[in-house]
């Protein structure tokens, strides 16, 4: 693990993120001054469920897996975060422990804003709570959408919607999307409560329709409008095959 102290500038992916760009200039400057740059290898745990909150994180490069596991070690993946995601703000609001584990799924570059100075800032400048609240509300919206998809959508549209959400980094990207998603089919299956076989079948159908290109550990979105059309099919009787054949 490598680590450097706070810098007067953030990685470009984070400073250009939609949330950071929406912040008041003074808050942007404060975060730039207090963020510590971290470079971590794959397979490192940032924090565990039940840990005391240690601050806010911003992901500049790589992937971070947010998950929970039961006593047998079976893992449920809530999300795989891609740049430029900011995360860790939930415990800032309720002063409770971490809700999930956070693992690096690749070599990552991120920034860490420690909890104590952040709370001191918010005590002195309470108007900034609203800015942190907007970051939290993005997570709440994404969670409700994911729950609805899980209950209502058949596998094809469910998978398409999740790929589109990830290509926009769950709303964190501003005016652009990620074309290549470094994701294994096992990870996708765990995120969507589907079997790996089902995920593979749906990916192959989408690839055959020209929506995606598949490589080992990578899903490339080739036809975003076509994928959006598929994602809009909210019921099986609308016709999954008809949607992708257009």
The CATH H-level homologous superfamily of the largest domain? Jelly Rolls
Instruction: Report the top-level CATH class of the largest domain.
Output: Mainly Beta
Helix-and-strand structural type: alpha+beta
Q: Total helix count?
A: 11
Distance between the termini: 49 Å
Average pLDDT rating: 86
How much helical structure, as a percent, in the residues? 40-55%
| Number of beta strands | 12
Query: What Rg, in angstroms, do the CA atoms define?
Result: 19 Å
Label the overall shape: globular
CATH architecture of the largest domain: Sandwich
Question: Which sequence of strands runs across the widest sheet?
Answer: 1-2-9-4-7
CATH names the topology of the largest domain as: Jelly Rolls
Please give the largest β-sheet.
Answer: 5 strands, antiparallel
Give the uncertain stretches in residue-range form: 4-8, 235-246
Domain HTH crp-type: 153-225
Pfam families: cNMP_binding (PF00027), HTH_Crp_2 (PF13545)
Domain Cyclic nucleotide-binding: 19-122
Protein name: Transcriptional regulator, Crp/Fnr family
């Amino acid at each position: 693990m490598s680590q450097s102290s706070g810098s007067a500038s953030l990685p470009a992916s984070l400073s250009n993120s939609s949330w950071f760009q929406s912040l008041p200039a003074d808050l942007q400057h404060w975060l730039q001054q207090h963020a510590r740059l971290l470079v971590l290898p794959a397979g490192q745990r940032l924090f565990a469920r039940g840990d005391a909150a240690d601050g806010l994180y911003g992901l500049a490069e790589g992937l971070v897996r947010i998950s929970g596991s039961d006593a047998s070690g079976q893992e449920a993946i809530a999300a795989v975060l891609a740049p430029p995601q900011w995360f860790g703000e939930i415990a800032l609001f309720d002063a409770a422990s971490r809700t999930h584990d956070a693992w690096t799924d690749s070599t990552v570059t991120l920034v860490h804003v420690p909890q104590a100075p952040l709370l001191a800032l918010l005590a002195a400048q309470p108007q900034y709570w609203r800015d942190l609240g907007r970051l939290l509300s993005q997570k709440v919206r994404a969670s409700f959408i994911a729950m609805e998809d899980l209950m209502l959508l058949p596998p094809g549209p469910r998978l398409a919607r999740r790929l589109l959400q990830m290509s926009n980094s769950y709303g964190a990207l501003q005016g652009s999307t990620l074309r290549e998603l470094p994701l294994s089919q096992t990870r996708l299956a765990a995120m969507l409560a589907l079997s790996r076989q089902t995920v593979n079948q749906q990916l192959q159908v989408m690839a055959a329709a020209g929506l995606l290109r598949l490589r080992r550990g990578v899903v490339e979105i080739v036809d975003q409008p076509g994928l959006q059309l598929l994602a809009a099919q909210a019921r099986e009787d609308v016709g999954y095959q008809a949607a992708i054949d257009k």
